[in-house]
Write a structure and sequence with these properties.
The structure is a homotetramer of 302-residue chains. Chain A has 302 residues and is α/β, with parallel strands linked by helices. Chains A and B meet through strand 2, helix 9 and helix 10 of A and strand 2, helix 9 and helix 10 of B.
Chain lengths: 302, 302, 302, 302
């Protein structure tokens, strides 16, 4: 007589809030050396990837997250040839970067081989074969170690790793010192974009601290955010560059998308307008931020 | 040993999705003639109002919703003197309208006296005494009936009633015919804004149908949306007018806010830029909409 | 920071009550022609089998259920040679019956081949190889059809099929007419035992109706119940026979267990004393029951 | 469209198990000096009392718990005149004791005045005015302190305080030394009964340790248990006495109930038979227990 749903996944966003997802079917559940992984099918969002109990990516709306993460940085570089993706195990960040014909070399560095292998197998609609593209080279290692030992320059670097809300290896990928390292590896007109945590006012602490840290390092820093239905929140990103510049206008973004022959579902000039304009309360909060994430005082921020 | 939270409120957004709120304390729970009402305190969002199982308003972020609902319409009228608020039982819509010194008469029509009385008593931080303002007149009746029997014109009409996702009296407040009635009661430079449902892609059907219906009636129609943390989603509004016009620029909105001496937490020029610019996927969805909500074929839309 | 459990299975026992199980791992989820099946591992109860959203059997305490179901009937027959098990897909009912050296032929009739095959593969600790015992014959068909076409007599018949709380094929396995059919297939000293639903006072309706129906057919009828931790309730059984008889004393049951060299974890003389003695409120409720389940007025009972 | 229940109370019995109760209405929620208290109405169990997140008592089935706790001890004393109840804030333990005409003096000692006052006001169907009976004297203080300063003897002592599964004042009311104190305050034919925790196999640790501790102190110790629907489990009690004796037979218990003119819903001779007979697995577990709860090594047991 009662509810017909029995399998629920509970994603706690705080001790007193949670989102619950009715699961049609669990596809894969496993613990890697680094994290707990679930791949599951839902009625509302299609296939979902959960890492350490948090929704990571949904079949129905990953295009929003990945287009927002990739295209502002890629379009603002005149002709990105060599690109680095840090994290991004699902392969959808690769997919978006590979849409650019100028790209000759795309390096992806991810810590967790087991996650990438499972994404390759079970998240086909995400990567769409991108892992097999000749331009792609995969390294399974710590991104910081990779960058310290790699001297070549990148036109665009895209960071798609979990925000520093918990202890773990990702904590070191949001510090002052790390961003200096990134800066030193960008080519002259290089761009750096990263996923940067929830921007919903009750949960903005992490985003805000990352933004302030980047501001100490990069002359050009632009936080932005996109609402992702399966996350139940607005998700934050930050675009930055080692040189001063201006954000393209709505019409210039439209022109760039057209010139580069991109087929996009989410991003265009008006979308850029929507996501780079920040509400007054959020701007105030970002302006008041004083924390700088530092290698010498590493701790989770939330 | 386990969780310290025991009282949870579950807001089902679909058979397979829900948001859950840990409750510190239930303040009031009652069933009126029209709806089930809960007022409860939470750690994350402060006091919350739930109607018929859906979160309606949170102490911590109702300013986002109410500023977004009220100010675009009020600012675009050169000098609103006579204003009508439909619904809006919490009194926060009144609060925002009363910030305008030009307002001489503010009429509020709400169906549910019991809800309004409880909001007056338990949601003080929402209305902040607005119900006692001399300019305010309250009617407890059906808004459509009120409008059919009222011949005077309004400079601004603001509709703050539940969207038509379920059977109920609100269904008739989103039709073609009703919007014609609204139009006939607007003064020459009159503006009409309404709350218009969830705009998250999986739940946009209702918003989209309302928008299309308004498009049949009003020459100027601009859907917009604001992310409200306690709703876990972007919420939709629609601004409209019986005459063609243009949306003010960022700087003009800023100038208007300053001229009218408004103290706002959320709305300003850049916020307007953010909320009126719509992402590509949402624009596409709105453009493809064909449904018109009609008195003769009333049914819930979701 | 919050709960470390994310996968939960919700077993609704009524619209306003449910038990929730934190799942370590889902082993198998599938829909057969007859039912929805889940096999999952939990910390508290080990492996669990769920059918149509209800917990069916737990690794940690299935011995309680299966010993209670099988041994009173088997021990009260002087030397059971030919035994029929109806349902009992997990194979644990077989396992208990096979402990009797007197058993020469054990027939199991289950509707759902797919469930039995999965139990064979994934519930090894339940059946412990019983399906491979030479004495066992399996039929995948409707039990009623089987009995109508089978003329031989059985010394013990054990029914282990879902109680009639919902529409479905099991409904016909609890009627007056069906029990007459069972009676006609029992040998002279034959015994019949069946699982007979929850006996917790708020949920006893089904048990009570089955008991009353059996009372119309069999001269000897003894309802009993055992608390099963993973069910969160006391579970009901009914022992019956086509001839008047007396329940063995505590010491006689102990003697029978010893003579037949049974190794049991749950059942013995004192356990029999505990489970056949019924509390006053339950006895009153059973005495007041008037419903008889009849082929001609089949409907779910709850 | 989805579930009509929104208010749920979650009672976690372990990190991976919980029972959830749909709440019709919260009556009272408050924090006393000692515990968190909720009084709420449900469809299934009527009014419920929760203490520190655990269901304590339900309108629909508190008679099971309270009759099981009180009557074995009271009936086994030839004529109880002076009775002590420790804890039992709802007043239902008083109610059962007051059914005995032989009782002249009934002292209740409870730590938490605020709980008792709220029970008096909101749990009328529990106490049924017992607090106003002339024979009753109430003390709000620590039971151990009370007993240390009270030299008179009691015919029956009934302990109705939370089992020692968490830090708190109740921990000291289950020790070796405390039971010696109880023993010293019992009259010659005195009886002592106490509520003694969940006896469901996964949760029996606390019950088992209490039983073993009592065995070190009292010559006569009989653990027993009753299934209480709203608890979703079998609940344990222990009957003890400072002198060797035998448990009355089924018929003797029936005779005693009749002689003393008790009107009971749950307890009688056959119920006694059911609750004092323990299943084999539980007996084995109790026999193997070695822990003794001692003032000098106090710690929660679970």
């Amino acid at each position: 007589m009662p509810s017909e749903k029995h399998k629920w996944y509970i994603d706690h966003t705080s001790p007193g809030t949670a989102h619950i997802y009715g699961i049609e079917n669990y596809i894969r559940s496993f613990q890697t050396r680094y994290q707990q992984v679930e791949i599951a099918d839902t009625e509302m969002f299609g296939r979902l990837l959960f890492l350490d109990g948090k929704v990571q990516s949904a079949e129905s709306d990953e295009y929003i997250y990945h287009e927002a993460l990739v295209h502002p940085a890629m379009l603002m570089h005149p002709a990105p040839r060599r690109v680095l993706v840090i994290g991004g195990g699902e392969g959808a960040t690769l997919r978006e970067v590979l849409k650019y014909q100028s790209v000759e070399e795309l390096i992806m560095v991810d810590l967790d081989k087991e996650v990438v292998e499972n994404c390759r197998k079970y998240l086909e609609s995400w990567h769409q074969g991108s892992f097999n593209d000749n331009r792609v080279t995969l390294y399974f290692m710590d991104a910081r170690e990779y960058l310290e030992n790699e001297n070549g320059a990148f036109d665009v670097i895209i960071s798609d790793v979990p925000e520093p809300v918990e202890e773990g290896p990702a904590l070191k990928l949001f510090t002052n010192q790390y961003f200096e390292l990134i800066k030193s590896r960008l080519s002259e007109k290089g761009m750096f974009s990263l996923q940067a945590g929830d921007t919903s006012m009750p949960f903005i602490a992490s985003h805000s601290a990352i933004n302030n840290t980047l501001n100490k390092v990069m002359p050009f820093v632009r936080p932005y955010r996109a609402f992702v239905p399966s996350y139940n929140t607005e998700w934050g990103f930050i675009l930055s560059a080692p040189a001063e510049m201006e954000l393209p206008s709505t019409s210039l973004f439209d022109k760039l998308v057209e010139e580069r022959k991109l087929e996009l579902q989410y991003f265009d000039g008006e979308t850029a307008r929507a996501i780079f304009a920040l509400p007054k309360d959020m701007r105030k909060r970002l302006e008041e931020e004083t924390r700088v994430i530092d290698d010498n005082h590493l701790m989770p921020i939330y």
